[in-house]
Structure to design on (137 residues):
């Protein structure tokens, strides 16, 4: 069971790494070269690019951490939190996908965030609880 939970964390990491790298490249093209779908968004508010770069950069760093993570309950719950944050952000700012004509990207990434929430919750439920020492008075 531990091997399957480790595999889940690694697959999760690959998704975060690939999606965030693609988003980061799209951000750079749009912000600095006025090219691609993000260019439509940042043309009206160039400094909004800061949030795009930060979000995708941080998601990439989270992917690195997921790759290295141990298949413990704490790491599975951390993965849940990551995907709740990213998936909810996609839903709250869904208009961005419409304005940038990137609905397919929105559908795929948001669905995968939701899927990882469910899978990581299941994995957290099957992970052994950490052993704690008795409390001292």
């Amino acid at each position: 069971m531990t091997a399957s939970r480790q595999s889940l964390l690694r697959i999760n990491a690959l998704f975060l790494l690939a999606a965030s790298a693609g988003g980061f490249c799209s951000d750079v093209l749009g912000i600095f070269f006025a090219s691609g779908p993000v260019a439509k968004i940042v043309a009206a508010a160039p400094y909004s690019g800061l949030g795009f770069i930060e979000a995708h950069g941080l998601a990439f760093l989270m992917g690195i951490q997921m790759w290295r993570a141990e298949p413990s309950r704490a790491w599975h719950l951390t993965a849940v939190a990551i995907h709740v944050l990213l998936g909810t952000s996609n839903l709250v700012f869904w208009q961005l996908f419409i304005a940038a004509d990137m609905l397919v990207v929105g559908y795929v990434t948001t669905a995968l965030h939701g899927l990882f929430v469910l899978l990581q919750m299941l994995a957290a439920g099957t992970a052994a609880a950490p052993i704690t020492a008795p409390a001292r008075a």
User: Anything to note?
Assistant: Residues 2-33 form the longest helix (32 residues). The mean pLDDT is 93. The radius of gyration is 18 Å.
